[in-house]
Amino acid sequence: MIYEFILPDIGEGISEARLINWSVKAGDRIKEGEEVATISTDKVDVELPSPRSGTIAELCWEPGDTIKVGSVFLRIETRGEPAADKTAGPATTAKAKAKPKAKEKPRRPGPSATGQILAAPSTRKYARELGVALSDVSGSGPRGRILRGDVEAAAQSRGGAARGEAADGVGLAMAERMSQSVHVLAHSTINFEARADGFCTLLDKLAPKAEARGLRLSPTALFAKCAAAALSEHPRLNATIDEDQCRLVLHKDVNLGIALASERGLLVPVVRRVNRISLFALAEQLAAAIGRGRDGALRPGDMRGGTFTLSNTGGLERATITSTRPIINAPQAAILWVSRITDQVRVDNGAPGVGAMVSCSLSFDHRFIDGAGALAFVNDMADHIESPGQALAAD
Amino acid sequence: MAGKRKSGKKPAAGGGRAGGYCPLGDAVRAGIRQVIDAQGRLTGDLPEPDLDRDTLIRLYEMMVLVRAIDERGWVLQRSGRVEFWIPHKGLEAVHIAATMAFARNDWIFLGYRHPGALLLRGAALVQLFAQFFGRRDEPFKGRRLPTLMGDRRLNVVPMTTQVGSYIPHACGAAWGAKIKGDDTRFLTFFGDGATSRGEFHSALNFAGIFKPPVVFICENNGWAVTTPASAQTASRTFAQKGDAYAVRNLRVDGNDPLAVYAAAREARDLAAKEAPSLIEAVTYRLGFHTSSDNPDLYREPEEVEEWAAWDPLIRTCKYLERKGYWGKRQEADLWTRCTRDIDAAVEQAEAMPLPDPASMFDDTFEQMTWMLEEQKAALLGDLERCS
C-alpha cells in the first residue's frame, strides 16, 4: 500500500518550502521518525522525519525545487508494515485534495468564490434591524467585506429608512480615488463602435409605455441594461480589486456606478442589482439618483459598493466624440464610456449608407483582466447594443 | 517585546556566574534553593525531601515518559500528522514535582508544556494523544490546539492561550474555596513573560490582601518566545515581585525536582495558613518555543549547551543511581516501555474519529444564537458544495 507523505505546514502559515536535499533514495527501507529530507522554509531549515515505516517508492521532487504545502512530497510503500494506512491522517488527506484547486486561484478564495459573506457581527445585527438580507448586499470592504455603509446603502436603495450622513468630502474622496486609480491600476483601453438602429427603435417603442408611468426613458438606462447583460456573461469585468491580497473579487450582482456631472463635480451614484431589476425600475432609480445628485442630496452610501461604472456623456456632447480613455473607478476593475448616438456614414452589406452609431471606450485593469477577456466582453456588449432585446429578456 | 535579536551574553534574570548563561552552578549566590547538583550529589542548601524509593522512581519515570512524549510529538508534527507542537524538553521537573507535592483533589491551572500533571492525576496516554491528534473523543472534543490540555474530571484546568490571563482565575477560585471552607489548595503555572501582564499583578495583589490558598509557580525558562528574561524585567529576580504585594516568595532550581518538590510542598502547607507563595522556578527551555519557532535566530548554541549539562533527567537519574535505586538496565527498560506505550497510544488515538465540523458550534451558549445558527448553516452549505 502506498502512503503519500503530504508536505505539511510545519510552521503555522507556511505556504511553501524549498527542498535542500534528500537523506534517502528510492528503494531505501525507512522507519517512522527517521529523517527523509531537509527543507527550507521562510522561517527555518527543517529535517523532515518519515511519517511511516516502509520502503521509499518515489521521491517526487529534486533538490532546489520549491514545493507547495499540501503537495505529495514522497511516496512510501508500507506493505507488510503495521501502519494504520486507512486512518492515515484524514486531516492531511483532506488537505491534499483541497490544495490543487487552491493552486489555480490566488491565495484565499474570495467571498464570491465560496459564497461566503464577510461582515462583522455588528454589521450583521444592523442588517437584521434594517431588514436587509446580507446576501443582497455588495461589500465594499477588503475581500468584499460588507460594511455598515453598504447595509445602509442597500436599505436606501430599497426605499428603506436610513440615517443621514454628511456629504462633505465626497468630491475630495473622488479626487483621491481617481488619482490613486491612475497610479496603481494598469489602465488599458479598447475603443469600439456599435450600430444603434435597433437600440433607437426599441427606445422609441418603449418611450410611450414609460411615459404612461410618468417616466422618461433615457439611453443611459438601456445602455445600463445592456452592460448588465454583458457583465453577467463576463464576471471578471464585474469585479473589485483587493489590493492587499493582489487579486480580483468577483461579484454576483451588477451594482452599476453611473457617472454624473453635477455642480459639485463628478458624482457616481450606484444603482444596485441592475441585472435583476426591470428597465423601468432602473429608469426610475436612475432618475432619482440623478435628481439627488443635482440637488446635492447624494450620500456617501449612495456611491459605495459599485462593481462597474457606466459613463454616458451623450447629454453633454455637441462635438462628435469618437473615443475617450476613461479612468477606472477603483476599486472597480473596469469602466465603460458611451457617446451620444449620432447618424454616421457607414458600410452596410457592402454599400455605403447612413445609420445610427455609438462610440464606446472600455478601460480595464490589465493586471487582472487580459486583452482577450476584455475583447470578449466588448464583442458581447456591442451585440447587446445592436440588438438590445435580449438584454431585457429577464424583465 | 523584543523581536528577533541575538541575546547578548546575558544570563536570565538575576543570573549567576559572570559570563555564564546558567546560574545553577552557583545557585547560592543567585539565591536559588537547590538540593542536588549537576551530578546528583546532595550539595544544595535545601535538605533532601523525605520521599520513599517508589515515589522517587515514579517521579523519574514520569519525567522520562514526558520527555519521550515530547520527542514523539515533535516527529509527529514534523511529519505532518499532528498540526502543532509545544515542546517541553528540559521543563519536566517543575510541573511533575510540583504536581506530586499537591493532593489529588487540589486544583491545577496549567500553563503550556505540562503533560505530566494530567498523567500523574491518572489520565491515560491515549487521551493525551487523542488531544494532540484533535480527535472527537477527548475532553475538549478535538477543538483545541494540540498540547493545550486539561481535564475537569481531574481538577486540571486547561491553559488559556492568552498569556497569564488565567492567573486571577486561579487566585479567585482559591478565594472561593476559602470562603466555602474547603481544604482545597490551588496551584498555577505560568512563564516569565506572564509577569509582564497586568493579570499577574492583579492576582498577586489580591493574593497579598485576601490570602487565598494558592501557590503561583513562575517557570522562568529564560525566554518568552524571543524575549530573553533580561529584557523581560529590570528586577533582580522574578520572585522578588512578590515583595511588592506582600506575597511570600522564593527562587528554586527548576531543574532539580527535589528542590521543586520541597518548595511546593512547603508552599502547599503554608497556603492553608494564610500564606500564598510565589515560587520562581529557574529552568530552561531546551527546545523550540513551538513548532513555528526557530530559536537559532535569537539565542546562542553555547547557551543551550550550558543548560543541557543541567538537564533535569540526567541529574535525577544520577541521584537515583547514587542512592542505589537505579541502574543501566532499568534505564533501558524504562525507555523501551515508554516508547512501546506511546506507540500504542499513537496508533489507538490516530484511529479515533475526527470531530464533526458542525459540532464546533456546540457548547458555547445554552441556546444557540441566531448568528451562530447562520454560521453553522453557512458552514454546512460550504461543506456540501465541497463534497
Which properties best describe this structure?
heterodimer, A: 395 residues, alpha+beta, Chloramphenicol Acetyltransferase, 2 domains, 9 helices, elongated, B: 387 residues, alpha/beta, Rossmann fold, 7-stranded parallel β-sheet, two-stranded antiparallel ribbon, 39% helix
Walk me through this protein's architecture:
The complex is a heterodimer of chains A (395) and B (387). Helices cover 30% and strands 25% of the residues of chain A. Chain A is built from nine helices and 19 strands. In chain A, a hairpin with a 4-residue loop joins β10 and β11 (247-250). Chain B has a single domain (23-355), classed as 3-Layer(aba) Sandwich (Rossmann fold), CATH 3.40.50.970. Helix content of chain B is 39%, strand content 9%. In chain B, 51% of the residues are buried.
Largest interchain contact: A-B, 34 and 29 residues
What is the level 1 CATH name of chain B? Alpha Beta
**What is the fourth-level CATH superfamily of chain B?**
Thiamin diphosphate (ThDP)-binding fold, Pyr/PP domains
CATH superfamily of the largest domain in chain A: Chloramphenicol acetyltransferase-like domain
If you consult CATH, what is the topology of chain B?
Rossmann fold
- Supply the helix-strand structural class of chain A: alpha+beta
Compute the separation of the termini of chain B in Å: 44 Å
Q: Determine the mean pLDDT of chain A.
A: 83
Q: Which H/E pattern describes the elements of chain B?
A: EHHEHHEHEHEEEEHEHHHH
CATH architectural label of chain B: 3-Layer(aba) Sandwich
The largest β sheet of chain B comes out as: 7 strands, parallel
Computed over alpha carbons, the radius of gyration of chain B is: 21 Å
- Provide the gyration radius of chain A in Å: 28 Å
Number of distinct beta strands of chain A: 19
Helix content of chain A: 25-40%
CATH topology of the largest domain in chain A: Chloramphenicol Acetyltransferase
Q: Quick one: how many beta strands of chain B?
A: 9
Helix content bin of chain B: 25-40%
* Alpha plus pi helix count of chain A: 9
pLDDT < 50 runs, ≥5 residues of chain A: 82-114, 160-169
